[in-house]
From TrEMBL, chains A, B:
Keywords: DNA damage, DNA recombination, DNA repair, Metal-binding, Zinc, Zinc-finger. The gene is recR. It comes from Kordiimonas sediminis. Pfam families: RecR_C (PF21175), RecR_HhH (PF21176), RecR_ZnF (PF02132), Toprim_4 (PF13662). InterPro entries: DNA_Rcmb_RecR, Rcmb_RecR, Rcmb_RecR_Znf, TOPRIM_dom, TOPRIM_RecR. Coiled coil: none annotated. This is Recombination protein RecR.
Length: 201, 201
């Protein structure tokens, strides 16, 4: 097979293609873009990757990924330590935190219960959550799992486990997404929005 | 603004978002994927970027980007040194070379003539092409520029400049793309395909 470039470049393209959203073709385009912007993008990116890879840690409190342990959230004393928000994944934690509505702390579960995939309670950070929830100062646990079957099953399981923890257990509301059009929404969402309708003030 | 992760991770996300095909959201997803696959993807990618950034060079012969100079193509003695294929960009060179049809050498032009953008012949590798084309052993120059207005204008200009170089000047054929459906093709392509029709053997 003929080669138009060195194997180092091939290696780079193959690694870039592993990023979500990049296929072989866009990885090649990315590699070329990087080659052309050697000093402004390529070297800084390599350095940033090294920096983060060297310092990345899983927060021993909540399971967040950060460069410090405890993470920026658990280490922030201005955060409300009485409320724990349970999320499936670090991506969900970041997404919720970007909304800037919630100022409490988090617990990353690490997935959902799934009989099909053989994921049981022991594979998730359930015990960690229970032990944190039973701490004196915690008053509320918000279940912010995905609105999927597995997510909801896990919510029910956690609500049951938290019954004796002496905390209020809540879950995210179901309803219309902001900006959503009724015509395009599924029946389940519409039914949930109707059931949870509120009085207009 | 609250922070759910360290500034090193923000820097990484911002740099990833500069890759073509990745926006802010997919850059965040990519960063998370990298964090989770620290040893299998993140560190190798950082190393690959460093390796390539350290060794990348513009081939002094053809203008290809490679880790060696002259590049793998110009340095390959099995390649046909009598034919030069002119392309606008390194991406085009790689694309043509992947097709494994062409076994000659290349000349990267570095763009196309464009009155609008103020790109004249001096901004492109035209003189380099002329001097290489006038070398004794070169017999053919293939113009493989994009089928855009600028690309075709540049092709005409190059054909004129190469008139006295004593080489055959050819250009890529216009016609149906392989797998293309007539119904979806523009009039220009259909007209070109019709004009250049060949006898079925």
């Amino acid at each position: 097979m003929p080669r138009s470039h060195g194997s180092e470049i091939d290696t780079l393209i193959q690694l870039l293609a592993k990023l979500p959203g990049l296929g072989p073709r866009s990885a090649r385009r990315s590699a070329l873009q990087l080659l052309k912007k050697r000093d402004s993008v390529m070297v800084p990116l390599a350095n940033a990757l090294h920096d983060v890879a060297d310092s990345i840690e899983i927060c021993s409190e909540c399971g967040n990924l950060d460069t410090v342990n405890p993470c920026h959230i658990c280490g922030d004393i201005r955060r409300d330590q009485t409320t724990i928000c349970v999320v499936e994944d670090v991506a969900d934690l970041w997404a919720l935190d970007r909304s800037e509505t919630y100022r409490g702390i988090y617990q990353v579960l690490g997935g959902t219960l799934s009989a099909l995939d053989g994921v049981g309670p022991d594979d998730l950070n359930v015990e960690k959550l229970i032990s944190r929830a039973t701490q004196e100062d915690v008053t509320e646990v918000i279940l912010a799992l995905n609105a999927t079957v597995d997510g909801q099953t896990t919510s029910h399981y956690l609500a049951e486990r938290l019954e004796d923890a002496g905390v209020k257990v809540t879950a995210l509301a179901h309803g219309l997404p902001v900006g959503g059009e009724l015509d395009y929404l599924d029946d389940g969402t519409l039914a949930a929005a109707l059931r949870s309708r509120g009085v207009v003030t």
